[in-house]
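Table S7 (text form). Paired inputs.
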Amino acid sequence: MGSITRTFANNITTGGKFDATDLTGTLPASNVADASVTNITAVPALTSVSTVASDPPSPDNGQLWYNTTTRLLKGYVLSDGSWATGGALNQAKSQAGGIGTLTAGLCAGGDLPGETANNESYDGTSWTEVNNLNAATRLGQGIGLQTAALLAGGYQPPGYQSKNESWDGTNWTETTNLNSNKGAGGGCGTQTAAIAFAGVPGGPMATNELWDGSSWTEVGDLNSGRRHVAGVGISTAALAYGGDKPSPSPGALTEQWDGSSWTEVADLNTGRSTLGWGVYNLAGATLGHTGSFVNNTELWDGTSWTEAADSATSTKEGGSAGTVQSAGLYFGGESPPRVANTEEWTIPDSATKDVTTA
């Protein structure tokens, strides 16, 4: 900023006294030379950039933050994703419960044809048969992680069941049943805090049940009953999308759960019965059935769905696993016929980027 000169000659009175009555006031803008800002020592805080001690676990695309531990300004950039072939299941099957992550998954139960109790574990490269379910079932809802999971409901002749089994990483144990018989529903959360919603029988259901680690409680229903619906998130913040419903069928509906009620949000671009992976604000929807087999992939950014790279194989009723949008599995299903394929979804360049250094 340039220098400012002001003369006080007119402030000396005829008696030799100093007149200070007009020394206050606003300097005209024309009197200020905007030549330099080198003397500025501070600026207001940038409120749009969060200050955190550690990087956010699931940042939004384009989010910026300052890490006070590393003293770095960082941002998250979501790049294009792609599918790659993974290790094949030991048995071709459809309608299995998918659990876990890209490198630590479970494929529980399914249809061979005919219900199976078979359980397979994925290590990021290959599937290994591990201890079976107590009851052969298909269309059960897989919830949780490879070492701590649930398989809720499903179909076992002569009909849909309310059975609930808990996995400790080694064995399945029968635990408290659902309040109603159901299968082909959605669900998400953890082994000790989960929700299970929608499904059949009796036409597409809207019921929603909350699991607290020991029992199920009926809570707020979906706005629209559906079956073969995808579910991602946790028991207090979740997303339900796609699925068959009376009209249209299959549906493109997406609903968001806030811990007490469901709200309809932006639809999928392609309505279909589908499975998905991810967290509720960054979800993925893959493959499915629209009356024909499809290989669509769509990504959710918290507001809307965007078409992404297609998978290699068009299929339906496969299992899926994944806890982040940038890494997931899709396995088995019908192409037709039933397949043992595994496809791995990754967004390799999605990462926290340093915007500047300390």
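Next pair, protein 2 of 2.
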Amino acid sequence: MKLSKARLPTGAATALTALLLLAPAALAQTAPWTLVTSPNASPGNNQLNAVASISANDVWAVGSADNAIGNPQPLAEHWNGTAWSIVPTPTVVTGTLSGVAAVSSTDVWAGGGFLLSSRGNTAQFLHWNGRKWSVAKSPAVAGATIFGMAAVSSSNVWAVGSVISGGVAQAFIEHWNGRKWAVVPSPAASTRNNHLGGVTAVNANDVWAVGDLQNASGVFQTLTEHWDGTAWSIVPSPSGAGPEAGLLAVAAVSTSDVWAVGDTGSGTLIERWNGTSWAVVPSPTPAGTLFNPLSGAAVVSANDIWAVGQSQNGTTGIPQTLIEQWNGTSWSIVTSPAPGTASLLSGASANPTSGQAWAVGNFRAASGATQTLTEFNP
């Protein structure tokens, strides 16, 4: 299965020695990104997968942190305008949060995949009510995982991912109507594996979800689905030039201006919806690299859009952070901090009012464990 949330490999044999070489022609430094210290919940592996901005002083990031016996636990961190802090989440058997969507300061949803008890009961959502995080009742669908979330209002929240049945992953969608979560039918993109990795909402009748599908030949291609207020439908999308393709995140400016990001199997992949069709928009790929997935997208304005991810060195396979910016005319690579012996970014969010943007992920510390990574663009 191709689609997965980006995280650093944990194998001891992974070489961690080289730096990426970026093509000079592709570099275009604009507003700088800076590293912001974020806490870790344990001495084991910690990572942040997604981020949601409510205001300049109210930002949430979610992911996971290993407990004392090595099982991942949901991790939620909050930015108050001055510092990041860990906010307690319910203890589960195992669990990772991969998506987050904020309606307001007192109404935030986080989703992923976790075991609530040793009996195997599944729960996929946590809710923040302004005071604490709690497990939200949702359909106990075995094998289901949430990768992306988007909120229209307090009574209209979407979550997308995949559910594995019979060894095959299929696109999976759930909806919150203000009272309960329910599974919403989504079209079968193929009889083989297909997934949804990201979702964005323009309004209640205009929602986009993106991911990948495996065709009859076993090759992965892009997948885009649209909600028109009544049903989800598949909308054709190109896959670009590469061995196989997939989309990991999507962000909307308006009904006729939606952006989706991912990879072609080797290089970056960025696509744009113009109100009629999806088309590939050229995006730079760092020179001398092997794999360049863009895992997060965030909109400040129509002429200020961010895409974040990782770029793996073509010789060592070591990943480092990758950030690209749309200035209204073209995409360019923007220098980003790359701490540790390896680093990557998994999610992005922006606040159009303040113009601020956040990117989150993880990096490899000297101890060999992964630690949380947060970067900021003012």
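Residues 34-377 form a domain with the Methylamine Dehydrogenase; Chain H fold (CATH 2.130.10.10).
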